[in-house]
Every structure is written in structure tokens, then in C-alpha cells.
Amino acid sequence: MSKAFVTKPAPDFNIEAFMPSEEFEKVKLSDYKGKYLVMFFYPMDFTFVCPTEIIGFSDRVEEFRKIGCEVIAVSCDSVYCHYAWCSQSRKEGGLGKMNIPLLADVTHSLSNFFFLIKISTIRQHQHYICNNVQHIFWTMECTWSLRVAL
Question: Which of 50, 81, 86, 130 is flagged as catalytic?
Fold first, then answer.
């Protein structure tokens, strides 16, 4: 059962990410204290259902920042897989240059907290917004992408 409920605190994770600088860094929820945070989960890298959303958030992240909000993407893939996907051009099916961190939840710690792994080890497609005091403010499940991918 999920431990994630609207109005409750989000977990203070510490997860390796592929950053916009094209470096690998640890990212923590506390890095975003005082800001709103859109945290969206997607099933896997190199799938056909995810790139448009990831690219859309990345290309428009400055609009979020203008209103005090940051954006991060999360999947179970490793930072090396994220790097490979970002190394491919968009015309070749890759993500190209990203302006948002891609978190590598390889231990499934966030997935388990949000109860997102329901079929095998594939993460559901879900969105969360944490408010400026790092409580879950809003959530939306998009199970259509998981069903399409399978």
C-alpha cells in the first residue's frame, strides 16, 4: 500500500541523477525546499510513450521556474541508461539535451513509497506536485502509458 497521501510529507530521497550539466549527481528532496516541485515518474527509458512528455517538461522548465517550481523526472533505469538516451538526438528517438534532472531510482525506494511498481518491476506513469514545505500537494495517475507500453 502506498505511503503517499495528499497533505502528507514526501520522502526525503537521496538518489543519483543525470543532470542537465550532463554530470551524475545526487539529488535530494531537501534541495528543493522553499519551491514547488513537479515530480513525474515514467516506466522506462527508450520507450515510445514517454519522450514527448519528458521533452515537453524539459523544454518548458523555465516557465515553471518563473513561478517558483522545479521539475524532475524519475524512472528505475540507471544514470548510464539516462545518459545513453540523452546522447541520442530527438530525430533518432532519443531525448537530446535535457534541462531537467533524470533521477535513477534503481533501488525502487521512491517507487515503493509511492506504490508505483504494480506489474513486474515496471513503474507506473504518475505525477506528483510537492508544495514549498515538501508535502504532497497534488497527484495524477496515468495508467494508459503503462498499458500501451506492455
Answer: 50
Q: Is 50 a catalytic residue?
A: yes
- Local structure of 64: helix, strand or coil: helix
Per-residue pLDDT tens digits for 12-50: 899 999 999 999 999 999 999 999 999 888 888 988 766
Do the Cβ atoms of 58 and 99 come closer than 8 Å?
yes
- Assessment of whether the complete model's pTM goes beyond 0.85: no
How do residues 58-116 score in pLDDT, each as one tens digit? 999 999 999 999 999 999 899 999 999 999 999 998 999 999 999 999 998 887 776 65
DSSP code of 9?
B
Question: What is the rounded CA–CA span in Å between residue 6 and residue 138?
Answer: 6
What amino acid occupies position 34? G
What is the bridge-based pairing of β-strands 102-104 and 122-123?
unpaired
Numbers of helices and strands, H then E, in the chain: 5, 9
β-strand partners of 36:
69
Q: Which residues contact 102 (CB under 8 A, 6 or more apart)?
A: 17, 18, 54, 72, 73, 74, 75, 79, 82, 86
What is the Cα–Cα distance from 83 to 85, expressed in whole angstroms? 6
